[in-house]
Design a protein that fits this description.
With about 140 residues, the protein is an alpha+beta fold. About 15% of the residues lie in helices and about 30% in strands. The chain has one helix at about 1-20; strands spanning about 35-40, 55, 65-70, 75-80, 90-95, 100-105, 110, 120, 130-135, 140-144. Strands 1-10-9-4-3-2 form a six-stranded antiparallel beta sheet, with no helix packed on it. Strands 5-6-7-8 form a four-stranded antiparallel beta sheet, with no helix packed on it.
């Protein structure tokens, strides 16, 4: 009797592990290798010399990145891909009237650039963030 219960429990455990591993959850941003340097003296990134400004950069990340200057010494970098449905062709391409918010053109989700979390819309997950180091002067190193 004990062997039968143990065998049933093991079979149940194996099936639970197999089926939970087969869950198809599309709410993730695919991994893309990022390792780039940004120089604040370049005209393309000149807006980052002022706190509260953001620059959209299409050449890194899954669908481009957003670099946001949060304070004099702190920058944040997010992927432009919406976390609601990353499999669509949509990106977060437009700033709203508030310079600290970005909006997905497809689903309407609005994200805060202070932390990447959605404030409105169907998205529940934050924007994917990347690591960043700042030399305190002119150079940002963005990587994952």
């Amino acid at each position: 009797m004990l062997k039968s219960k143990l065998r049933f429990f093991l079979i149940f455990l194996i099936f639970s592990v197999i089926f939970s591993g087969c869950k198809n959850d599309n709410n993730y941003i695919p991994y893309v290798y990022v390792n780039t340097y940004v120089y604040l003296s370049d005209p393309e990134f000149y807006e980052l010399n002022a706190v509260g400004n953001a620059v959209f950069y299409d050449y890194e990340g899954y669908k481009g990145i957003i670099i946001f200057r949060k304070s004099m010494d702190e920058f944040l970098v997010f992927d432009r891909c919406c976390s609601y449905d990353p499999t669509t062709e949509c990106e977060i391409v437009e700033k709203t009237d508030d310079s600290y918010l970005v909006k997905c053109d497809c689903c309407g989700s609005i994200y805060s650039l202070y932390d990447g979390y959605p404030l409105e819309g169907p998205a529940a997950l934050p924007l994917k963030s990347y690591n960043l180091t700042f030399d305190g002067n002119n150079t940002l190193h963005i990587y994952n």
